[in-house]
Protein backbone atom coordinates (compact mmCIF):
# COMPACT_ATOMS: atom_id res chain seq x y z
CA UNK A 1 0.00 0.00 0.00
CA UNK A 2 1.39 3.40 -0.98
CA UNK A 3 0.69 6.33 1.31
CA UNK A 4 -0.05 9.73 -0.12
CA UNK A 5 2.41 12.48 0.77
CA UNK A 6 -0.34 14.18 2.79
CA UNK A 7 -0.76 11.04 4.89
CA UNK A 8 2.99 10.80 5.45
CA UNK A 9 3.18 14.45 6.48
CA UNK A 10 0.27 13.92 8.88
CA UNK A 11 2.14 11.07 10.54
CA UNK A 12 5.31 13.15 10.77
CA UNK A 13 3.38 15.87 12.58
CA UNK A 14 2.46 13.34 15.26
CA UNK A 15 6.01 11.96 15.49
CA UNK A 16 8.29 14.99 15.33
CA UNK A 17 5.92 17.93 15.83
CA UNK A 18 4.55 20.60 13.50
CA UNK A 19 7.65 22.83 13.56
CA UNK A 20 9.86 20.29 11.83
CA UNK A 21 7.15 19.15 9.42
CA UNK A 22 6.72 22.71 8.14
CA UNK A 23 10.41 22.73 7.22
CA UNK A 24 10.17 19.29 5.60
CA UNK A 25 7.18 20.36 3.50
CA UNK A 26 9.09 23.38 2.23
CA UNK A 27 11.99 21.14 1.17
CA UNK A 28 9.66 18.66 -0.55
CA UNK A 29 8.02 21.41 -2.57
UniProtKB/TrEMBL annotation:
This is FAD-binding protein. It comes from the Bacteria.
Amino acid sequence: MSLSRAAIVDQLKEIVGADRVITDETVLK
